[in-house]
What we know:
By secondary structure, the chain is mainly α. Helices cover 41% and strands 0% of the residues.
Amino acid sequence: MAKDPEPFLSRWSRLKRERDDAEQAPAPVADSSADAPMLSDAQAADAPLPELPPIDELTPASDFRPFMDPRVPEALRRVALKKLYADPHFNVQDMLDDFAEDYTLLETLPAGMADKLAHARRTLLGQNEADRIEAEEQKAAEKAAADGPSRPPRDTAEAPRIDDVPDQSAEAAQSRPSGEPQDQNG
């Protein structure tokens, strides 16, 4: 392996100094701003507004850049943008919205699915635990049938209240054997 003529630290120091010198050098001025003279804040406030097209004649293909000028009043800018976004092109739903669908309309289970779920419950939880859960469900169903509808159906826009959701954390902790770790779901 050939020995480098310049040691590593010397090369690193030289390159760092060159980079610092290049950063301190003045940056060249862009030619695109040569056409428009630089205005101070006071001069910009006194300068006339750019020529704006009539709002009624705006289409999605129109140039909206003049409305983005900082000298244009905010209300006028909003009216122009409202006209732009009123186009149906901007009202296409992207289907990536998690809350775009109505999840209150549930499909019924296929014919044999309830039996398969009951079998899976017995297999995973054991016969005694599955029987206990089924008895609780049966009692709850009988109570609901005897009570009738407890309240009229809620408006879909109304969020569920906290007291509508039963707290099952204490129940789950008591039914779990002490040696089993708690899983992610409860």
